[in-house]
Amino acid sequence: MLKVVDRALQGDRISLAKLITLVENDPVEARKVISAINSLTGKAHIIGLTGPTGAGKSSLINGLISELRNRKKSIGVIAIDPTSPFSGGAFLGDRIRMPIASLDKGVFIRSMGSRGRLGGLSRAASDVIKLFDACGKDIVLVETAGAGQSDVEISKMADTVMVMTTPEGGDDIQIAKAGIMEIGDIFIVNKADCGDADSRVYEIRMMVHSLPKRDISWEPEVIKTMALNNIGLNDLCNIIENHYKFLKETNLLFEKRKMRKRSELLDTFKEIAVECVVHRMNEKQRFDLLIEKVMNNELDIYSAVNQLISVLQGNQW
Question: Could you state, in order of their start, the residue ranges of all structural domains in the chain?
Fold first, then answer.
C-alpha cells in the first residue's frame, strides 16, 4: 500500500485512483493511507459548490476548470451523486457533463456516490480531499449531491462555499429559508438568461443583509452566470481568489480549518467508537440481547446507551 502512496505522490494517476477507491471502500485501510500523507496536507484551496438539482453545478464546474487552468492551477474534483436506497448504485455521470476537463492531465475528476450519507456528501469525501491536497492539487472542487436546503455539510469541509440557484429557483419565502442559504460565501445565479435573474440577485442580496455575518467584514458576493456559455466565469474566479486572499489575510482560514479538524475529530471518534463497541458486543453475542431488552421495555434507550458506553470504557457487561 505504501508503494501505491509513493507513486500517487509522484504524480501517477492510476495509483491515485486506486487510493481513492481504497478509502471509499475500506475504512480501516483508509486510516493507514491518511496517516501516511497527513503531513503533506493543508496547502490546497478547498472550494465547495452546492445547490438544487438542475441548477447547472456540473456545467459550471466544467467551465470554472477551464478558467482556473488558464491561471495555471492544478485541480481535483469530487462530484457527489445521490445513491439509490434500493440498488445502492449511483449514476456518477459527471464526466459526461465535464468533457473537456476529463481529458486534461492537470485535472483529476472523481465521481462518488453519497452512499446514504446525509448533507449531500460521501463519508469518504474528507479523505479524498486530503489525497488530492497531498498529491499537489492547488484547488479541490467539491460538488454536493444537490438534494436541497439541508446540504450544509460542505460548510464543514470547504474554505470557500458557493451556493448556486437559478432565476426560477423558488419564491421569496423559499430562498430565505434557513439552511443552505446561510452557508454561502459566494452566491451564483446560473442560467441568467432564463427568467428574471436581476430579481433573484436582489432577493439574495436582501437575504444576505438580513443574516448575521459569519466572517468579519466579508460581504457574500452575488454573481450572475451562464455556465454553458462561459459567461461570468472569469469574474467568478476573481471573486473566489479574493475570498481566499481575504481568509488568509484575516487569519480566518486558520480558524475555519481548526473548526474543521475539531468536527472531523469528533465525527471520526464517534464512528470508530461505535465500531469498537459493536464489535466487542457481537463477539459475546450481547448486542442482539441488548436490543431485545429495549424491545421488551426492560431497558430504556438511555440506559442501553449507558451500557454501550460501559463497554467502550472497558468495563464488563
Answer: 41-249, 262-312
Rounded Cα–Cα distance for residues 74 and 198 (Å): 34
Structure confidence by residue, pLDDT tens digits, 215-249: 667 889 999 999 999 999 999 999 999 999 999 99
Rounded Cα distance between 215 and 247, Å, is: 9
Write b or e for each residue in 178-211: b if 16 or more Cβ atoms lie within 10 A of its Cβ, otherwise e. Answer: eebbbbbbbbbbbbbeeeebeebbebbeebbeee
Reduced to 3 states (helix: H, G, I; strand: E, B; else coil), residue 116 is coil
- What is the Cα–Cα distance from 89 to 86, expressed in whole angstroms? 8
- Confidence at residue 151, expressed as pLDDT on a 0 to 100 scale: 60
Q: Among residues 243, 50, 47, which one has the least CA distance to residue 158? A: 47
Q: What is the spatial distance between Cα 118 and Cα 80, in angstroms, rounded to a whole number?
A: 12
pLDDT at 272 > cutoff 80: yes
Vertex 206: Cα angle to 214 and 235 (nearest 5): 75
* 41-249 CATH pick, 3.40.50.620, 3.40.250.10, 3.30.300.20, 3.40.50.300: 3.40.50.300
pTM of the predicted protein model: 0.85
Could you write out the DSSP letters of every residue in 225-250? Answer: -BGGGTBTHHHHHHHHHHHHHHHHHT
Amino acid at 17: A
Grid cell digits, residue 81: 451523486
Length of the chain: 317
